[in-house]
Amino acid sequence: MDTEEHDAFKAFSQKVNWHLGIGDVAAATGVSQSQLRYWEQKGFIESEKVNGQNRKYSYDMLIRVFMINSFIKEGFTLAAAVKRASEHRETMKLLRQSMIDRFQGIEKVDGYPAVNLGYMDDEHTKVLYLVVKENGTDIKIVPKN
């Protein structure tokens, strides 16, 4: 995706407002509506009024609820689950931004799909790839002329 396509998609995604009702979030995540209200009262999640209607949750909040609930199921307390969900969100934000900044496309390297992360030197002689194999991802530097 080139910069122009990325900017167009970013503008589009900011205009689109996906909002879910509390029942939809409860059904999708397995967290009861009363629990969602409690989490919101404690400031762990947020809803908003859309067109003066009942509380609506963004797609981002749906993911947050899912993450918190997953951590609770793993045995974490609610407070620890909220903290871990916040840390996970920050990690994903950094990964997303780094991929947006560096992503140059998908190519084949040694017969495997590879993420081109662009030149890794000022002279533009070496390209950094993440080569995705069945047993994991390798890093490969490929000389370019």
Automatic annotation (TrEMBL):
Ranges for domain HTH merR-type come to 19-88
Q: Which keywords does this chain's UniProt record carry? A: DNA-binding, Repressor, Transcription, Transcription regulation
PROSITE patterns in the cross-refs: HTH_MERR_1 (PS00552), HTH_MERR_2 (PS50937)
**Gene Ontology MF, one:** DNA-binding transcription factor activity
Does the record's keyword annotation contain Transcription?
yes
- SMART domains reported in the protein's UniProt record: HTH_MERR (SM00422)
User: Please, which domain of life does this record's source organism belong to?
Assistant: Bacteria
Return the Pfam families for the record.
MerR_1 (PF13411)
Question: Does the record carry DNA-binding as a key word?
Answer: yes
- Kindly provide the name given to this protein in its UniProt entry: MerR family transcriptional regulator
Which species does the entry assign this protein to?
Secundilactobacillus silagincola
